[in-house]
Description:
The protein is an alpha/beta fold. The chain is built from six helices and seven strands, in the order H-E-H-E-H-H-E-H-E-H-E-E-E. It has helices spanning 3-9, 45-58, 69-74, 76-84, 104-122, 142-149, and strands at 17-20, 64-67, 88-91, 128-129, 154-155, 176-179, 185-188.
Amino acid sequence: MTESRQIALQKPNHILSVDVEDYFHVEAFAGTVSRESWDQYPCRVVENCRRLLDMFDRHAVKATFFVLGWVADRFPRIVREISNRGHELACHSFWHRRVDSLTPAQFRSDTREACDAIEQAASVRVLGYRAPTWSIRRQSLWALDVLAEEGFAYDSSIYPIRHDLYGIPGASRHSYTHACSNGQTLLSFLRQL
């Protein structure tokens, strides 16, 4: 096991995470704001990230930043700044598409593109993943197999509730090691209520 994977698998006491996306990326706008038009909207993500980074610095807090590949591609300086200030970079997809709306091949391609953008921006290896809108559900658990095959150490995509867009009712509210159907394992940090 690599040193970075061992570090990622250590049980933390507290976890703080941030989804690095802009207001027009959210699922609520998916039907009205096309991906092709994203460049037409004023971006707030860089300034908002800097505010969080400054606040975290003031309080000596470190977090995991789940970065959208689209953001890393267009604003690599903020991704480098997040990393340079000592925070972990993780993947939040490239196009913010719900995992349960993708095929395994589309998911793998989107994830690779996102990781490439993040890794190119900050020269760090991405070990964690969070699905847009926590969209890994029972019918899309195959995504955890893909993540393990792609070398991820952990996932933070499952919300242990019943909701029309996300969630796996009855899922553990505590971190655990997920045994993938391909024989690999992946640490799951579940969304806490």
